[in-house]
Amino acid sequence: MDDYFPSNFARILIALGTFFLCLEDQDLVAQQRGLSNADDGQQILEQAISSWSAMQHRDASMSFHLAAKTTYAKRSHWNIVLEKHFPPDDYTHELEVYGVVDFDRHRFRRETKSEIYHLNKQTFEPDVRYDLFDGETLQRFYPAAFDSDGKATGAKRLTAKLILRNSAQPGDLIGSLESPLFWCRGMLPTCTIGPNRFSAKLEAEMFVYEGQQQTELGTTHVIRFEFPEHPNRCWKYWLSKDDGWLPVRRSKYVGDVEYSRIVVHYATSQDGSPEPHRWTLTTYSAESEVNKVMQTTRCALRKLETDVDLAAIRFQIERTPAMQVQDQREP
Does residue 160 contact residue 145 with C-beta atoms inside 8 Å? Predict the structure, then answer.
């Protein structure tokens, strides 16, 4: 009897454990089936696109100020002149972006204050750049830079430099760092925004629903945007229903290799709409000698105004005889 009771008791425990394990497996299978259901994924995509479409008409214009710090990881970049990695140690500099967007007339102005690496001198130096678009011509303007002693800084620009082009590629207008501001205006993906159309083309067929995923930012739904002309490239978005179906993460891939990631935390604006509060942009490299993280930029929204007075805003730089001008416009 002593031998019989433990044996049967063990069998009962095994049977009960198997029963509950089967129940858990059934729940898991049901959950996976629900996440992979094409109809469910299509409904989520339609809800997200409906939300983004409504956001596209919320503002006629906006101005913004971003404050950030960029860190270059140790030995993460390659100096093609001296054929060596840089920087020798982690290096951090401040970065500021001031921008104005006229959505109605397709005009854009951005001033970026940052630092640039001097390949020969092997040092980071102050740098200022303007990107302007008046609806027809893209200008990239580098002002002459002087320090308090009257010596040129940056790339030794003794004269201002102005580059002219017929039109702007989307990447020239909207960089990764500003992307969250445009997401909140229904512009996903930003690469579809043309120079004469400050709105994104939104169709469910553009995306592939991959499923639900728990992240440190909560429950998200992962969708994928593919490039027909580049089948090896894709962008993935982690959408949050609590944030109006906006991405809390976007990652860029070549094949299975992630080379860029942006993670966003949103806040609620005065009108109840989500706005990016702070975000982190990280770039990666599979070829870095020491660190696969190349650089990290931590950004915060310092100021945002909508429907601003554009009367005093210049969306083009006037040429002067002292400027070095490169006219790359085609006839």
Answer: no
Token readout for 241 is 């229903």
Nearest alpha-carbon partner for 35 in 242, 222, 205: 222
Q: Going by C-beta distance under 8 Å and a sequence separation of 6 or more, which residues neighbour residue 265?
A: 217, 248, 276, 277, 278, 279
Q: How far is Cα 79 from Cα 95, in angstroms, rounded to an integer?
A: 22
Model confidence over 281-327: pLDDT tens digits?
999 986 655 558 999 999 999 999 999 999 999 999 998 888 999 98
Rounded CA-CA distance 246/298 in Å is: 19
Which pLDDT tens digit goes with each residue over 248-282? 999 999 998 899 999 999 999 888 889 999 999 99
Beta bridge partners of 278: 265, 300
- Specify the 3-state DSSP secondary structure of 210: strand
Condensed to tens digits (0 to 9), the pLDDT of residues 111-159 reads: 999 998 988 888 998 999 999 998 888 899 998 865 544 455 544 556 7
Q: Which stretches of 15-153 are assigned E, i.e. beta strand?
A: 61-72, 77-79, 84-86, 91-102, 107-118, 123-133, 138-142
Give the single-character DSSP code of 184.
Answer: T
The answer to whether 276 and 265 have CB atoms below 8 angstroms apart is yes
Say if CB 196 and CB 219 are below 8 A apart.
no
CA distances for 12 relative to 20, 21, 227, angstroms: 12, 14, 56
pLDDT tens digits, 199-210: 677 888 889 999
β-partners of residue 129 are 112
DSSP 254-272: ETTEEEEEEEEEEEE-TTS
Instruction: State yes or no: pLDDT of 26 exceeds 80.
Output: no
- The structure tokens listed for 149 are 């002693």
CB 47 within 8 A of CB 87: no
Residue bearing tokens 């690469």: 191
Phi, psi of 20 (to 5 degrees): -70, -35
The two three-digit tokens of residue 286, written as one number: 């599979």
